[in-house]
Fold this protein.
Amino acid sequence: MKAPSGGPALLLVNPTSGRGRGLKLWEETAGALHAAGFTPVVHITESLQEATDRARAAAAGSLVAVLGGDGFLGAAAAGARDSGAILLPLAGGRGNDTIRRLGLDLDPVKTVNNMGQLVVREMDLGLVNGRAYFGVANVGFDGLANEYGNSARINLGPFVYLYGGLKAFLQWRNVTFTLGVDGVESTVPGWFVAVGNVGQYGGGLHICPQAKVDDGLLDVVSLGKATILGVALTFVRSYRGTHLRQENIGFTRGREITISASKPLNIYADGEKVGALPATIGIAPAAVKVLVPVGSQVFG
C-alpha cells in the first residue's frame, strides 16, 4: 500500500524526548508536511497517555506523524491500533532505535520529504501487562542501566546507555529469573531477559537481531551466568548481533512470555518503565499500519 499523498495529518510532538529535540524540529517538520500536500494539526503533548488518546481519535487511514522517542512512538501506536490511522515515525528521541531498525532517516524533515518512497506495512505490537511497545521489553541488568541512562545529567546521545551500563556494573548482583514461554517454564540465573519485537534498543544494541515485526512472534534472549567482563563483551557483540553464538545466551520465540525474578526488579518497554515484576508479555499481530522503506529489514 502506497503512502498517503495529502489531506489532514496529525503531528504529535514529545517536548521532552531527546532533551527537547522535538521542540526544536516540529515547526520545520510541520512545514515539510504542508509542502507535501498535508494539512497538519500539531499537538505538543504533555504525557504518553495524551499521545495514545490523540492517535486513538484520529480518522482511520489518516496520517499520524510521531516526533519523539521510542516510548512515545509505542504510546502513539497503542492509539493507532484502535483507530486504524497510519503512523509515520519521526526521530525525536536520543536513541531512536525503532526508527533506525526500520530503516527510516534520522532527520524527520528528510523522512517527510521522502514519504513518497515509503510504503504502508502492518506491524506486530508487543504488550507488557497490556502496555504497547514496538522495540524491546527488558528486565535485569540492562533495565538498571536504562534507569541510570535516563537520569544522566549530560546529553550523551546514544552513548547515554553505555554510561548507564557502566554505572550499573557497580551495583548488579546475579538473580534468578523464572521465564515462561507459551506455557513452558524455566529458570535463568543471570543478568537479563529481553523480549524483542523490532528487537533493537539502547542506542544501537541489536539484542534480538533476528526479530521480525510481521511473524506474530516475540524473540526472547537471556544472558545466563557471566563475569562482568563477559557481560560487557555480550553488549559489545550485540551491536553487531553476534552475541547469540555465546553458550550462555538463551534464545527462543513465543507468543506469550511471563517473567518473574528472585529479587524486586522493574520491567521496561521501549525505554519506559512499565512497573515491577512479575510481568506478562504478549503480541498483537498485524496491529498497526506504519510507513516504512520498501526494503525494511525487520519484515519477513
